[in-house]
Amino acid sequence: xxxxxxxxxxxxxxxxxxxxxxxxxxxxxxxxxxxxxxxxxxxxxxxxxxxxxxxxxxxxxxxxxxxxxxxxxxxxxxxxxxxxxxxxxxxxxxxxxxxxxxxxxxxxxxxxxxxxxxxxxxxxxxxxxxxxxxxxxxxxxxxxxxxxxxxxxxxxxxxxxxxxxxxxxxxxxxxxxxxxxxxxxxxxxxxxxxxxxxxxxxxxxxxxxxxxxxxxxxxxxxxxxxxxxxxxxxxxxxxxxxxxxxxxxxxxxx
Length: 254
Ligand SMILES: C[S@@+](CC[C@H](N)C(=O)[O-])C[C@H]1O[C@@H](n2cnc3c(N)ncnc32)[C@H](O)[C@@H]1O
Known about the structure:
Layout: H1 3-17, E1 24-27, H2 32-40, E2 45-50, H3 53-61, E3 72-75, E4 89-95, H4 101-104, H5 109-119, E5 120-129, H6 140-158, H7 169-178, E6 182-193, H8 195-209, H9 215-239, E7 242-253
Parallel strand pairs: 1-2, 1-4, 2-3, 4-5
Antiparallel strand pairs: 5-7, 6-7
The chain binds S-adenosylmethionine.
S-adenosylmethionine (SAM) binds near residues 30, 33, 55 and 95.
């Protein structure tokens, strides 16, 4: 994902909130992007959750990071029933959280929105990526993006890691209703992937090949990664990017 489209998604959340006060805000799956956004809004307090110590360290070391006395950055797992037990928030953000759940709480995705519903007394915003890896694309840009996604996930699996599992917009809307949220607004944002995406994803593949137990396979993957990188970067240079798929922003009330 290219950074400009991420900031566009946060801007959309701010726009949808309009003049409603943010109040007590929960960033249910934090990262550098959503933490930066949290700093840009006028909350009475924020609470940010990550499942990874490494993410918490990265955030607290970021030059922009500041926490007031009432703000909290917590490392925990949503599967833990005592996490924020009995608390309520006016605004909750689930930003690329659903897709990442697989790495921290595999096959628990159906429990996420009921869990967040207990904590929401106002508005939930969900930002997500419509899945593309398991679907065949019908144009060259889409085929390249899909090929990169499939190679990335294969490398992660062969290196004993769990890839992200994204969910379609319709699935999320269904789950929100089942959890007693009312979706009130949905927006889709087409994605144009650039050289940063190609290099970032294929660099991730390259580091994972070092952990393959079959070294012959690792060499074959290394050659394939280099060839795909060249093809994808050539396309980006000629066409200005790889247009494929979309992100979504959902606004839902409790
Ligand atoms: C892809 S990152 C989020 C992106 C982020 N909002 C940003 O600014 O780019 C996903 C976040 O959700 C957290 N997460 C995923 N599953 C979790 C779980 N079961 N419990 C707690 N945190 C979880 C991850 O640790 C990480 O902080």
